[in-house]
């Protein structure tokens, strides 16, 4: 699991950093899409804001895929005996989507000055004094930018629903093998799956409404001003909730946090015995159980 948790935590930190670095607002024009930032990147120039916006979209996409990958790996590791490596490789192709988002975003011609002047011309009632010079996508209706929008909307909708199906399948397999496992192992595994199920549903809750407003503003010719700020806010919510869900639903994490808090407030006492429960392992023959290690008493 650490091979999934470490990258997931890194992506969450990087996503939070990009959000702070950009603090962006997107404004649709007739042809272009302006990316106006109030974060530190605005002092470095519009090019930094432009590149940061592309990478924050790709990072959020990679984070959602990684959560679903974690759940899918737990399913195939207990349900399928043959071709496990092949199944892992096939799912790994999902990580092409963040790369596609980056590549497609750079294919259309980049003209930051044109975006700046078109925005000033169309939105004369806006106050842009706090944004310095900004840029964005010169042609947001380009076929490649349309494909980027389509990829983001489809992934934000289909991927969580697919992950929810895999969650139910994993719980079914667990119920079929619960007699071959220790009670503690079943409890920990079930908590992990429920936590992953919530993690994969967060993008559906956060990104789908934002995607709707984005598409509406882009193609309707009208602007819902509050929606210009929602993408920056909603895109970083998974980075906030994911660590909380991991701490609560991964039992060793929860115990470690409780122990740390107890030590901070001075109520922690070293236990006389330490019972260690192995992480659940469903063997391929589904007959061998993962039993708790016998308690070791201090001498």
Write the layout of secondary structure elements.
Layout: H1 2-22, E1 24-28, E2 33-37, H2 46-79, H3 84-92, H4 96-106, H5 112-122, E3 135-137, H6 143-176, H7 183-220, H8 227-234, H9 237-249, H10 251-265, E4 273-274, E5 296-297
Antiparallel strand pairs: 1-2, 2-3, 4-5
Structural description of this entry:
The protein has 299 residues and is mainly alpha-helical. The protein starts with a helix and ends with a strand. The longest helix is centred in the C-terminal third of the chain and has 38 residues, at 183-220. The protein is elongated and about 70 Å long. Helix content is 65%, strand content 6%.
Assign the structural class, choosing from mainly alpha, mainly beta, alpha/beta, alpha+beta, or little secondary structure: mainly alpha
Choose one word for the global shape: elongated
Q: What is the percentage of strand-forming residues?
A: 5-15%
Tell me the radius of gyration.
23 Å
Count of individual helical segments: 10
Average predicted confidence as pLDDT: 80
H/E series, N to C?
HEEHHHHEHHHHHEE
* Strand order in space, largest sheet: 1-2-3
Helical content (DSSP H or I, runs of 4+): 55-70%
Domain module count: 1
State the total count of DSSP E strands.
Answer: 5
How far is it from the N-terminal to the C-terminal residue, by CA? 34 Å
Described by strand count, sense and barrel closure, the largest sheet is:
3 strands, antiparallel
The low-confidence parts are 272-299
